Amino acid sequence: MVNFNLKFALFLLLLSSSLAKAQLKLPHLISEGLVLQRAQPNTLWGWANPGEMVRVSLQQKTYSVATNAEGKWQIKIPAQKASGPFEIHIESGSEQIDVRNVFFGDLWLCSGPSNMELPLSRVIERYPQILSEANPYIRQFTVPDRYAFDEPRDILSGGYWMLAQGKDLAQFSALGYFFAQEVYKATGVAIGLVNSALGGSPIEAWLSKESIKAFPKALKAYEEVLDPDFVRAALEKNEEIQTKWYSRLNETDAGLNQATKWYEPSLSLKSWDSLQLPFWYKNSSLAQHIGSVWFQKEIELKEAQLKGENLLRLGRVIDKDETFVNGVKVGEITYQYPPRRYTLNKGILKAGKNRISVRVTNTGERGGFLDDKPYFLITETDSIPLSGYWKYKKAAEMPPIEATEFIRWRPVGLYHQMISPLKHVAFKGVLWYQGESNADAPAAYARKMSHLISDWRSLFQNKSLPFYTVQLANYKAYSADPQESSWAELRLEQHRASTTNSNVFMASAIDLGEWNDIHPLAKKELGQRMAKQALSHSYNIKGLKAHHPFATSATIKKNTVVIHIKTDSNLIVKKSLEQSFSIADKSGDFKWASATIVGNDLHLKLPKDMQKPARVRYAYADNPKSSVYSENGLPLLPFDLELH
Question: How far apart are CA 432 and CA 415, in angstroms?
């Protein structure tokens, strides 16, 4: 027995030694379902034992290269026509890897913050059939959310290729998918989306450390995080702030600590006050409240309404909700942006009286339930409105939570970890939807965008890499008076970036937004606009009329301001022109001006008592009226022009 155990131990030692030498590896991107860019050379790369020969076989051809002293290798594959599916066979020594279901098609890099990340699962109510569709020729690789400040990284920490079918389809970037859908219809070739996006990220996070030197404030913010101790201390402080605040909240919340918990159906609500939902705290008796409040509503149901699953919709809540139905927790979302959409499993609801209990936590001055969002219960037979009067009671009073910082948004970090590892990849182009996180400080955004374009083109060794960008959507409350707007300034900076850099094209979302949601659902319409531009420029399909009309100059002729518009089809009015255009004299006091379309020019009548107009604006607001379009359905771009 001793000899057997000794022999077995030696066998395991030899086996582990053999496995330790097994070094043939591929990056996560080069995996089953891969899309490679057609009509361009492609690089395949990976790792093997130092000095070992690596052979790559595909399309009846074999390519070989020796690894360097670090065990790295890369092979350049000549340009190929659209084709697939096929296998890539890679071998080194006694090891081999087969990468299956590979296509040569078109590969698009999708980047920015949450409006690029936003998955199809979030827009299904606007496009209810979308998840029943399937197209295995559209694929997505999602780059893991990571950051690195010291040096650019070579390796992604994970990721795999998903096909646009089944459960995976729900995870696709909605904007990316709708773009790909249109391009696939027009070309019939496989479309790959590399989704490298992170919610909330400012443009500075996607710049290289060389580019950030041009922006002193951003450079200082970057230099701070080069100190690991600074980063560690910041992360620990954030954790401490969150832990202490929420621990104290939970300890003092009466709804969690009384003998009868406030989510239990037996709880008496006789002493509770009432408020009409939806509402903002600032407009109610909760105006000064920070902490937790419990809300209760009772509804009567019949047996016929209880078959199968039911759906509870609670719009959007600021900041956090925990939702119970008949004492059963059915959902929880910890921040304000996602819609509250909770599936109720069979058996939770009952015939007769049912109680919905919602614990709402706000960490600062803003709190409440957003207007113009869906509040209802969908049963087997009915859609039951949940707006109206709810019972409520304060549970815990708290001071505002101390501000914390998202270190991952600091300059350069996302470029190093989410873009740099893609440096060997050949892309057809870039889809970029970003700006919300820079809207409060729009100055120099166009310069930053120019640096980003230069950085990425240099990294991917493609001086003419196309960029298709998005101009920010309309957002926030509508103003009946002309207003100054940092969102409007940011839109002008985005337009400036698209006109001062070659091979950059911008689609506007100025009419596709929602006043109460920074994540508008109209991603299909926006994706179609971007796709039309790409089909016109990157695919050279003629006659698409893909461009937004835009103002080129404004002049004064007697008492009329004439704005000259460049457009590829006639101008039309879709909505009233009232409160769309404003004019100011040298004092900068803007007043609304009436407008008419004359040919493809706009004629504005001077406001009363204005003698010397100096500037003219259109759609210049957080949430402006967008009234002028071209006949191809694209809105006139916002402008702010000096008068001559």
Answer: 14
